[in-house]
């Protein structure tokens, strides 16, 4: 039992390391060859994990071999546009200038119901509102609504917009980020005074606190 426990921990660590080295894509964003590698890695790890009669190295070596193959394929895709098209494929235009491409739908084995479902996930409920719909190589659908159906922007109304950067997380679950305090140009004394305004004497009582680019502080206290 202890042997199985240790082997499982080792293989778990190996798979985590390998998946981290492969990159940070989500499952829904994987290219076909990346998804194949992920499935094969899980199968290779499961065999020696369940069968203690198989040497552990027999599972680890193939996993790292797949990692090398995957990194090589990714590097080739980065260096060559032609190879990228062969390995990853090319996007398919399902709707072009408001017209559904039936031949492309058949080639991609994509039904009208599939298309409508994906459009609804993009908050588009009328196919007549779509100018372009492109099926990306990772299976995601990119949609460009018709001009008259797009949301109104400040630019459309000739209203100048102020710069809006990412908020800085000053406190995360009671932990104060000194790095983000420095980025915000404030110190711990300033933070303590701001907390005091909300009746908080200790940062450890704060669940989350962030400072946006306009200088507004968002703060939430931990539940007691």
TrEMBL record:
Q: Where are the transmembrane segments?
A: 6-23, 60-78
Superkingdom of origin: Bacteria
Q: How does it sit in the membrane?
A: Multi-pass membrane protein
Recite the UniProt keywords alphabetically.
Answer: Cell membrane, Membrane, Transmembrane, Transmembrane helix
Q: Where in the cell is it found?
A: Cell membrane
One Gene Ontology term, aspect cellular component: plasma membrane
YetF C-terminal domain boundaries: 79-211
Q: Which InterPro entries match?
A: DUF421 (IPR007353), UPF0702_alpha/beta_dom_sf (IPR023090)
Q: Which PANTHER family does the protein's record reference?
A: UPF0702 TRANSMEMBRANE PROTEIN YCAP
Q: Which family does it belong to?
A: Belongs to the UPF0702 family.
Q: What is this protein called?
A: YetF C-terminal domain-containing protein
């Amino acid at each position: 039992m202890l042997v199985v426990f240790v082997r499982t921990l080792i293989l778990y660590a190996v798979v985590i390391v390998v998946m981290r080295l492969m990159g940070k894509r989500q499952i829904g964003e994987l290219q076909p060859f990346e998804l194949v590698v992920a499935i094969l890695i899980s199968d290779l790890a499961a065999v020696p994990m369940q069968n203690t009669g198989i040497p552990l190295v027999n599972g680890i070596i193939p996993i790292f071999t797949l990692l090398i193959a995957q990194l090589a394929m990714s590097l080739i895709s980065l260096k060559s546009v032609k190879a990228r098209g062969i390995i990853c494929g090319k996007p398919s235009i399902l709707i072009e200038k408001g017209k559904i491409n039936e031949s492309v739908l058949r080639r991609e084995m994509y039904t009208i119901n599939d298309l409508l479902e994906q459009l609804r996930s993009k908050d588009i409920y009328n196919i007549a509102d779509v100018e372009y719909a492109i099926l990306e190589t990772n299976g995601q659908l990119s949609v460009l609504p018709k001009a008259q159906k797009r949301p109104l922007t400040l630019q459309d109304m000739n209203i100048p917009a102020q710069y809006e950067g990412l908020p800085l997380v000053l406190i995360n679950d009671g932990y104060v980020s000194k790095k983000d305090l420095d980025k915000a140009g404030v110190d711990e004394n300033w933070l303590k005074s701001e907390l005091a305004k909300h009746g908080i004497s200790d940062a450890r009582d704060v669940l989350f606190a962030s400072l946006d680019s306009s200088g507004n502080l968002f703060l939430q206290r931990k539940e007691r």
